[in-house]
Automatic annotation (TrEMBL):
The keyword ATP-binding applies. CDD domains: STKc_IRAK. It is found in: Membrane. It catalyses: L-seryl-[protein] + ATP = O-phospho-L-seryl-[protein] + ADP + H(+); L-threonyl-[protein] + ATP = O-phospho-L-threonyl-[protein] + ADP + H(+). GO terms for biological process: cell surface receptor signaling pathway. It holds the Pfam family GUB_WAK_bind. GO terms for cellular component: plasma membrane. GO terms for molecular function: ATP binding; polysaccharide binding; protein serine/threonine kinase activity. Keywords: ATP-binding, Disulfide bond, Glycoprotein, Kinase, Membrane, Nucleotide-binding, Phosphoprotein, Serine/threonine-protein kinase, Signal, Transferase, Transmembrane, Transmembrane helix. This is Protein kinase domain-containing protein. It comes from the Eukaryota. The chain crosses the membrane at residues 318-338.
Amino acid sequence: MIPPLLFQLMILLSWPINALAESPAIAKPNCPTSCGNGNGSVSIQFPFGIGDGCYLDHQYEVTCDSSTPFLRSINLTVLDISISLEASTILVNHTVLRSCNLESIPGEFVRNGTVNLESSPFFFSDENRFVGVGCNTFAYLSSNRSIISGCLSFCDRSNISAETMPLSNVTLRNSDCNGIKCCQTRIPSSRDLQQLRMTLSTTNYEENTTMTEQNKCKSAFLVDQEWFGNNIDSPDKAQGLKHVPVLLDWGIHESSFDLIERNPSKRYNNTSDCNQIFAHSTSTNTSTNATFTMPVRRCRCNPGYEGNPYLLHGCQGIGIGFGALFLLIGAWWLYIIVKRRKNIKLKEEYFKRNGGLLLQQQLTSLDGSVDRCKLFNSKELDKATDNFNMDRILGQGGQGTVYKGMLTDGKIVAVKKSKAVDEWKIEEFINEVAILSQINHRNVVKLLGCCLETEVPLLVYEFIPNGTLLHYLHNQAEEFQLTWDMRLQIAIEVAGALCYLHSAASFPIYHRDIKSANILLDDKYRAKVADFGTSKSIAIDQTHVTTKVKGTFGYLDPEYFQSSQFTDKSDVYSFGVVLVELLTGQKAISSTRSQDNRSLVTHFIVSMVENNLFDILDPEVTKVGKKEEIMTVANLAKSCLNLNGKKRPTMKEVATVLEGIQASQKESNVQQNYEEVEYVRTELIEPWDVVST
Ligand SMILES: *[C@@H]1O[C@H](CO)[C@@H](O)[C@H](O)[C@H]1NC(C)=O
Ligand SMILES: *[C@@H]1O[C@H](CO)[C@@H](O)[C@H](O)[C@H]1NC(C)=O
Ligand SMILES: *[C@@H]1O[C@H](CO)[C@@H](O)[C@H](O)[C@H]1NC(C)=O
Ligand SMILES: *[C@@H]1O[C@H](CO)[C@@H](O)[C@H](O)[C@H]1NC(C)=O
Ligand SMILES: *[C@@H]1O[C@H](CO)[C@@H](O)[C@H](O)[C@H]1NC(C)=O
Ligand SMILES: *[C@@H]1O[C@H](CO)[C@@H](O)[C@H](O)[C@H]1NC(C)=O
Ligand SMILES: *[C@@H]1O[C@H](CO)[C@@H](O)[C@H](O)[C@H]1NC(C)=O
Ligand SMILES: *[C@@H]1O[C@H](CO)[C@@H](O)[C@H](O)[C@H]1NC(C)=O
Ligand SMILES: *[C@@H]1O[C@H](CO)[C@@H](O)[C@H](O)[C@H]1NC(C)=O
Ligand SMILES: *[C@@H]1O[C@H](CO)[C@@H](O)[C@H](O)[C@H]1NC(C)=O
Ligand SMILES: *[C@@H]1O[C@H](CO)[C@@H](O)[C@H](O)[C@H]1NC(C)=O
Ligand SMILES: *[C@@H]1O[C@H](CO)[C@@H](O)[C@H](O)[C@H]1NC(C)=O
């Protein structure tokens, strides 16, 4: 038990966990938080936004047509938006200045292009590099009419000397883009860089190079150095570039800032700081032509907080919860220990209650070892069935639910979870598990083991892949139809299994719920009798058991129904119903038949009497089955369904007749006469020992 005080403490402390678990908002409420799909998805953080009311002002308006985030104010596609303690940046997709002009005369200007971010809150970051590509190329960058950076690249390096360099400042470095076909250089770390002109020109130096198609092209661009370093490892790759990511710093214009937030410290409760003026943007008053500058501020979360500092409550505490968290973890740990102990005790209790000790004793005495019936532990079966996941349910019946599971060794099993245990008499259950685990018949589903540590006992069976006979007989949609030979084979196998249970096993076992739904088919359509939930084993000197009537309507022996006395002949009756199902392909109880013929047994008997049996047979049967064979099986079924149990054949006799048909198929000249067998049986019937309820 958890001390009540501790429990209260836990409740009290559980709220900061919720606060911690909630991930901080990145966009305004009800606004899209991302644009694009898969790897190319860009998270749209405020002040950027998609749609009215989602962005701070038109500078940050993003459109998301065809999954491409487009920043309208500067006409560029956005590849990433990032807000960190150090910087607020965006990555944009920019075109490369490029020329493949064949006639370019040495020393002449080739091409130029400008990028103008003036009056926007966006600036070229000094984390970009300026790159020139091509043979005999001089690429340079100018701003406000003065050159601020540039570099040279040659394809023929034979006589490059200091004198041939037009600019002494140009550096040749980085083994991959170092002046041979490609050159790169830093740009000044002026914060206010908003307007750039890139120029490509040809040096006076004459290249001693055969001009390939590619070598004829020159290009120049600004590029995010991180991307360039990670993606471009050869001049040839640089030569092919048409678009490159460029990193832009951004902030918020003083004027816009005032619009959203007049008193920052109050509004943000000191979780964020927006006092840093990091750059000045230049604007031109269109009416007066006067240029003026405007401060641009940037926000960041204060120490101990993280998130989006541009949003109200965007920064969330990451440190506050720690003290409480430790206390909580301590409490949780205690609780787990207490609970685990309680669990172990409970498991032991269940094990005792479910007769685990008795089973161990019985199995040991039967066989000298417990190997025959493995005792699984509950954890193993939880894992095997994915905690008894609904998706794993194979079927549900009166006795419980069957789940498909996979043991750690990869073996596929069926796990049956019994319904409430109180109705079961533990000794009987244990007796049955012990006996079933002794049964080793190829047409009886094998019990692999059980688990008694849980509230209700769990039984573990081998998994039979093809489902029930019921499904194959009555599912019209099923493309696969059981042939006459298969039906005969199934009947023989089930009869053999029942015969074994009734006589060959060390104690007679009555199945008590034979029906097509309890006959499973394996991958070769071999029958396996399943569901011994209601089965009874009886002492050798008994010929019947007196119980509460259990079974399935439509298969139930009418004599048992009246007397509550279950005998081996009650199983024979149920088997007779299965035989009729195999012959007719119809359900034991069906509302599609007329009122009088709801019950398949009645329907069948009436047809036999009125001599129109062949009208009700399954076409699949009449197609191939020989008339004599069909008649033999029909007569056998009829005798199994005799209202007087004593007049029914034993399972052994049934099995013999069925095997006889198969044998006669092989030696078709041997005639099988069922009539003879039917009357031999009467002599074999043992005295009917009546025990009253
Ligand atoms: C997406 O990302 C994964 C791993 O980061 C990478 O293997 C894959 O190539 C990427 N796909 C595209 C289309 O970029
Ligand atoms: C963006 O493109 C439109 C038309 O394509 C043009 O009118 C506008 O001036 C451009 N804006 C910028 C900042 O280049
Ligand atoms: C950049 O734009 C070009 C042309 O629109 C496009 O082909 C390219 O895929 C874009 N690059 C990235 C990384 O989105
Ligand atoms: C830029 O190129 C244009 C033609 O495209 C030319 O008229 C102009 O003079 C060039 N400017 C510079 C500085 O080279
Ligand atoms: C451009 O240069 C002129 C003088 O050369 C200077 O007065 C002006 O402030 C500069 N503008 C910028 C934006 O740096
Ligand atoms: C070139 O370098 C010298 C000093 O090394 C410096 O004074 C000059 O401003 C630089 N020129 C350019 C265009 O960067
Ligand atoms: C390059 O070297 C060759 C001889 O090796 C010479 O003829 C030529 O003038 C040199 N070019 C320059 C630009 O120095
Ligand atoms: C040009 O290169 C070739 C071989 O690459 C060489 O034989 C020739 O001497 C070079 N000419 C000049 C002027 O450097
Ligand atoms: C700021 O904190 C005070 C008390 O610490 C609180 O009453 C107020 O609601 C908070 N304001 C905001 C905007 O979070
Ligand atoms: C916020 O922090 C500033 C200094 O950083 C301080 O002067 C101010 O009183 C703080 N405001 C609140 C509400 O804590
Ligand atoms: C441009 O200048 C005029 C006159 O100084 C002023 O009235 C107007 O508000 C200015 N426009 C902008 C957009 O700043
Ligand atoms: C502003 O400059 C443009 C060209 O640069 C000129 O045509 C216009 O007359 C100027 N306007 C004023 C008010 O000076």
